Amino acid sequence: SKRHDYFANSNHFAIHVLKKQQIDLCSKFVKPTQGFEEIDWQYNFHGVPIFNDCLALFECSFYSKHEGGDHTIFLGRVDGFSINKGEPLIFLQGKYTQ
């Protein structure tokens, strides 16, 4: 991923669980040239991009990383989280589903 180095060189990151209505938001991050344009987001205290109005948010501190073949596995400690009402966006076997 072209975003790999951002994660590898950061002390903090966020994991977002999107709502089932947020397919467009999810799709913006499929291509490496797209991303934060025209999205409702802000930086948190640590300078990490946070999407507004997602289903759940986990704000994490970097803990460790491990090589996994042609992937890097990043582990983090959850420092804070928030949750909203709604149903999650699920991508399974190559398609969005419920």
Describe the structure.
The chain is built from 2 helices and 7 strands; from the N terminus they run αβαββββββ. With 98 residues, it is mostly beta strands. It has a single domain (4-97), classed as Pnp Oxidase, Chain A, CATH 2.30.110.10. The protein has a 3-stranded antiparallel sheet. It has a two-stranded antiparallel sheet with strand order 2-3. It starts with a helix and ends with a strand.
Summarize the structure.
It contains two helices and seven strands; from the N terminus they run αβαββββββ. The protein is mainly beta.
Give the SSE map.
Elements lengths: L3 H5 L3 E6 L5 H5 L13 E3 L5 E3 L4 E13 L2 E13 L6 E3 L2 E3 L1
Antiparallel strand pairs: 1-4, 2-3, 4-5, 6-7
End-to-end CA span: 27 Å
Radius of gyration: 14 Å
What is the number of beta strands?
Answer: 7
How many domains? The number is: 1
Our estimate of the beta-strand percent is 35-45%
Q: What is the H/E string?
A: HEHEEEEEE
Question: Keywords, please?
Answer:
two-stranded antiparallel ribbon, 3-stranded antiparallel sheet, 98 residues, 10% helix, mainly beta, globular, Pnp Oxidase, Chain A, 2 helices
